[in-house]
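Sample A.
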Amino acid sequence: MTKKIVLAYSGGLDTSIIIPWLKENLGYEVVAMAADLGQGEELAPLRDKALKSGALKLYIEDVREEFITGYIYPALKAGAIYERKYLLGTSFARPLIAKRLVEIARKEGAEAIAHGATGKGNDQVRFELAVKALAPELKIVAPWRLWDIRSREQSIDYAQARGIPVPVTKERPYSLDRNIWHLSHEGADLEDPANEPRDDVLMVTKPLTQAPDQVSYVTVEFEQGIPVAVDGQKLGPVDLLTRLNELGSANGIGVVDLLENRLVGMKSRGVYETPGGTILYQAHSELEHLTLDRATLHYKDLVAQRYAELVYDGVWFHPLREALDAFVDRTQRTVTGKARMKLYKGHCVPAGVWSPYSLYNAAYATFGEEEVYNQKDAEGFINLFGLPLKVQALMKKEAGLE
């Protein structure tokens, strides 16, 4: 019986040449799986392309809603941002793809799973740790760690020699990853941090020079940390994110140029487009500022950083992430309300926020006349709060340490 392997297939350069390579070098029948994460028109030619490349069959799995509700929303509620900028668009897509690969491998009776991640990148870790967590009995084949192809140019030559069309050319040799949340760009002139990204790098978001001169507003409504409506219209997860992507991209929102620290130990440079996601993160943050107390908000910031590291490092299925989810969900019980955001030439700034659970009380916060706050009480508070500093200063003076 011929052995089968399930390949995470995108139709891009790397996975396009992996199909014939697995057949020629390892003798596998290749079952390809493309996850529909919202990459749009890229999926249309995949079935014909995969079969012509030698795949036994191709599964195209629509996982857009699961992607948003099961992976994006937990990270959004946590406020997870990697290294101050990256909204984790590739990172939290990989465990979902791996989950579906495992399900198809079991259905097909395959003995192994393959992916097109390079030996220098983070994705190899994300795919493989997810598979180990979900199906430790499956073998994992990573061609980039096995074959003698060493560059994108050699990959293009390999594909052209076998008549396989690829969407990457030597004139535009960027590595792309696209889903409904983001679009990433790496490689070529971006590998020099001194180079400003060209406007034509962007494929989703308008460059700032082309964004409209008029201000746009959008109101996002949340229920317990989950976005449920845009401008008063209730929308499902896919339609809601699509609407915000349209608004954000039209106004140049969500372009990030990041020199990031990869898990494997090197720095890399990527340009990320996350228009709708940026609006959601900013709106959610504004609502938390209104509804969370000081201690919870500050501690949640610490959790957000650790959560982002776990997701970036590929340990989505780790017990710690699940435990952090429990903490985050508890904080979100009052994160219900509306945040109005102003969009203008790459800027997404607050323009009003409302919640039935608001902790802002104008009677206490006002600089005008009021009767609910006795300002004399502050003197005793400051004396007690500052007592350790006073005692330390007295000790230094008596000990001659000044």
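Sample B, a different protein:
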Amino acid sequence: MPKMKTRRAAAKRYTVTPNGKVKYKKQGLRHILSKKSTKRKRKLRKAGILDRTEAPRVKKMLPYG
């Protein structure tokens, strides 16, 4: 049986934790930072955990994740 292909776009955006949760980098911290508050920018630094209802869809794109 051939190797399964990974969706490269999904692989660059998401990682699967050992417990099976899907982790991603939050958006909005690339540019136009002067108008955003320090508190908001600090909260955007932390990785986000994808909602459990969306996780199976992403995991399907990452077959070896």
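Observation for Sample B: Residues 38-45 form the longest helix (8 residues).
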